[in-house]
Specification:
Blueprint (H helix, E strand, L loop, with lengths): L1 H18 L13 E11 L5 E8 L1 H4 L13 E8 L2 H8 L6 E3 L5 E5 H6 L2 H9 L8 E5 L3 H7 L8 H9 L13 H9 L6 E7 L12 H6 L17 E10 L2 E6 L1 H11 L4 E7 L9 E17 L6 E15 L8 H30 L17 H7 L1 H4 L4 E12 L16
Parallel strand pairs: 1-4, 1-5, 5-6, 6-7, 12-13
Antiparallel strand pairs: 1-2, 2-3, 7-8, 8-9, 10-11, 11-12
Helix pairs in contact: 5-8, 10-11
Length: 425
C-alpha cells in the first residue's frame, strides 16, 4: 500500500509540474529574423575586416509569389567594415530591419589575403558561436570574398545554401572538390600530426577561357588540373569550386589543382570515384587515350616508420576500375592484355600521388595528409608526441607509394574490335 501511495504521489506531482505555466523567454518569431545564408570575410580599408552577409528574403527564397528569376530576387547582399566579425554583425543590425542570425548559415568564405595573414583569430569566434554550426563549409576565395558572393548567380538552385550543399556532393563523383568544414579545419590546426586544408573557390576570369600549358602525357593525365578561374568554358554560373587550399599552421601555404586534389583524397581515404583519362600504353602518338572510371576499392593503408635516420611513409592504394573508352581499338579486355593495362595505370597513379606528396613536403612544408597521426604509436604520452615535432620532420621524410588496381568491369562490351580501314580505296 505504501508503494502504491508513493507512486500516486509521484504521478500527481508530475501532472502538476506539466500544468505549470512555462516561459520561452529566449524565443524569437521567424518573421522577426533575417537569415544569413553565406558570410564572406575580406580585409577592410578603414577597419580590420570587411564582412559580407548574404541574407535570405523569406517571401522569395522558396519560390513563392513574387520570387522572380535569379538570385537577386531571393537574397540581399550587404557589407560592413568593423574590428571583428560579430562587431560587423552588430553594425549591420543598424540598417537591416530584422535581427540577423546565423542559424541557417551554410558557408563561410575567406579571401586569399585573409588566409595568408592567418586564420586562427577568425576560426576561434566561429567555433565559439552558439549559432554557427561546425559543419558549416569553409572556403578560401582566390580574390575577394565579396566579389565571389556578388557574382554567384545560381542557375539550377534558387537557394544559395542548397546550391553549395549540392556542389559539395561533387566530392563523391569527381574528387576535385574537398569537403572542408569549420570543425575539421579547427581540429587540424590544434593537432601536432596534421595541417589544415579546405575548399578553394573563385570567379571565372573575363575574356578568353583559361587553358593548360602541359603537353604530352601531362596534358592527358592532368585533364582536370585547373584552379578556380582557369576552366576553359562558356556560359553557366560565373563561380567555380575546384581544388584545395593548403595551410601551414593557420596560414595559407599554397593550392592544389583539381587533379592534385583527387590524389590527395585517395591518400586520405575520402576518394570515392572519378573519371580518369590515361595515355594508351601501346600507342606512342598520344592521340589515342583510355578513359576509365576509378573507384575506391578499400581504404588506403598508411604506415609511418620512425626507426631510421629519416621518417619513412609508405602508402598503399587499393582501387577498382571500369573501362569507359578505348580509342585505339586494342582489345585490352583480353586476359593477356588487361594485366598490362592495370600495371600501366598503377604506375601512373603512384607517380602522380608521389608528386603531390612531394609538393606538400618541398613547396608547402605542410602535412595536409595527416601522416603525423600515424606516429602516435611511438609515444606513450601526448607531450612526448608534441615534443617530437613531426611537422618539422615531415619535409625530410622518405615516401613510397604503391597502387593496386583491379579492372572489375568493362561496361557493356567484353571485347574491343578495331575499326576497319581502307574501305572504298
Amino acid at each position: 500500500m505504501t508503494k502504491i501511495n508513493r507512486t500516486l504521489k509521484l504521478l500527481l506531482l508530475s501532472i502538476i509540474i506539466m500544468l505549470l505555466p512555462t516561459g520561452c523567454w529566449g524565443a524569437r518569431e521567424t518573421d522577426q529574423m533575417a537569415y544569413i545564408l553565406v558570410m564572406g570575410i575580406d580585409k577592410g580599408q578603414n577597419n580590420l575586416v570587411e564582412v559580407t552577409f548574404q541574407i535570405a528574403k523569406p517571401q522569395n527564397i522558396g519560390g513563392g509569389e513574387g520570387g522572380g528569376g535569379g538570385q537577386g530576387a531571393n537574397t540581399e547582399i550587404v557589407s560592413v567594415e568593423a574590428a571583428s566579425l560579430f562587431g560587423a554583425l552588430q553594425l549591420a543590425n543598424a540598417f537591416v530591419s530584422r535581427e540577423l542570425t546565423f542559424i541557417h548559415n551554410k558557408v563561410v568564405i575567406v579571401s586569399e589575403d585573409i588566409a595568408r595573414e592567418g586564420m586562427s583569430k577568425y576560426i576561434n569566434p566561429l567555433v565559439r558561436s552558439r549559432e554557427i554550426r561546425r559543419t558549416t563549409f569553409l572556403m578560401v576565395s582566390k580574390g575577394k570574398a565579396r566579389d565571389f558572393i556578388e557574382k554567384n548567380k545560381p542557375v539550377l538552385d534558387r537557394n544559395p545554401s542548397r546550391q553549395f550543399e549540392t556542389l559539395m556532393q561533387g566530392n563523391f563523383i569527381t574528387g576535385i572538390i574537398p569537403y572542408g568544414t569549420i570543425h575539421e579545419f579547427y581540429i587540424n590546426i590544434k593537432s601536432p600530426g596534421s595541417e589544415p586544408f579546405t575548399n578553394l573557390v573563385g570567379v571565372q576570369k573575363e575574356g578568353e577561357p583559361g587553358s593548360k600549358k602541359q603537353g604530352g602525357d601531362d596534358k592527358i593525365m592532368n585533364e582536370v588540373a585547373y584552379l578556380p578561374g582557369e576552366i576553359p568554358r562558356k556560359g553557366g554560373n560565373k563561380i567555380e569550386v575546384i581544388g584545395l587550399a593548403a595551410f601551414r599552421s593557420d596560414k595559407l601555404a599554397g593550392f592544389l589543382n583539381g587533379a592534385e586534389t583527387r590524389y590527395h583524397q585517395m591518400v586520405t581515404g575520402r576518394f570515392r570515384s572519378a573519371i580518369f583519362t590515361f595515355p594508351d600504353p601501346q600507342r606512342d602518338d598520344r592521340k589515342n587515350i583510355i578513359v576509365m572510371e576509378i573507384k575506391k576499392g578499400s581504404n588506403p593503408t598508411v604506415k609511418v616508420t620512425l626507426t631510421g635516420d629519416k621518417p619513412l611513409i609508405e602508402v598503399n592504394l587499393v582501387l577498382e576500375g571500369e573501362i569507359v573508352s578505348i580509342q585505339s581499338g586494342i582489345n585490352y579486355e583480353a586476359t593477356d592484355k588487361i594485366g598490362e593495362l592495370q600495371s600501366n595505370i598503377e604506375r601512373l597513379i603512384s607517380g602522380e600521388v608521389l608528386k603531390v606528396i612531394r609538393k606538400t613536403q618541398q613547396e608547402f612544408k605542410s602535412d595536409i595528409f595527416g601522416f603525423g597521426e600515424y606516429t602516435r604509436q611511438y609515444f606513450w604520452v601526448w607531450k612526448e608526441w608534441e615534443k617530437f615535432d613531426w611537422l618539422k620532420r615531415y619535409p625530410e621524410a622518405e615516401v613510397k607509394v604503391t597502387t593496386s588496381l583491379a579492372i572489375r568491369r568493362t561496361g557493356l562490351m567484353t571485347k574491343t574490335v578495331p575499326t576497319h580501314s581502307g574501305w572504298g580505296e
